[in-house]
Amino acid sequence: MSIFFSVREAVEMAISTERSGQAFYQTASKLAREKSLEELFRGLAEEEEKHLKTFQGFYDTLKERPETTPYNWEEAKLYLKALVDSRFFTGPDTAINLAREAK
């Protein structure tokens, strides 16, 4: 079954992904034992922040357009959150677990 998303939905997924990525890299930076890794992860978190601002700008442009809103928004939000959570960064806990495994 094919599922189609509006532009607004795609931008919302991108925003969620960037937030998750930023949290992941911030946590990884705090857990890094080497200065070079800490700086690398901090830099990646900063890049995620730039991406987030870009997508937020797109979203602000789209939010006034009613044709970008799905019929059943609550159901769509739950689906999109599950999709993003399962396919991208899974949050700071993942960074903590990866750091523990790397010991």
UniProtKB/TrEMBL annotation:
<protein>
    <recommendedName>
        <fullName>Rubrerythrin diiron-binding domain-containing protein</fullName>
    </recommendedName>
</protein>
<dbReference type="InterPro" id="IPR012347">
    <property type="entry name" value="Ferritin-like"/>
</dbReference>
<dbReference type="GO" id="GO:0046872">
    <property type="term" value="F:metal ion binding"/>
</dbReference>
<dbReference type="InterPro" id="IPR009078">
    <property type="entry name" value="Ferritin-like_SF"/>
</dbReference>
<feature type="domain" description="Rubrerythrin diiron-binding">
    <location>
        <begin position="9"/>
        <end position="81"/>
    </location>
</feature>
<dbReference type="Pfam" id="PF02915">
    <property type="entry name" value="Rubrerythrin"/>
</dbReference>
<dbReference type="GO" id="GO:0016491">
    <property type="term" value="F:oxidoreductase activity"/>
</dbReference>
<dbReference type="InterPro" id="IPR003251">
    <property type="entry name" value="Rr_diiron-bd_dom"/>
</dbReference>
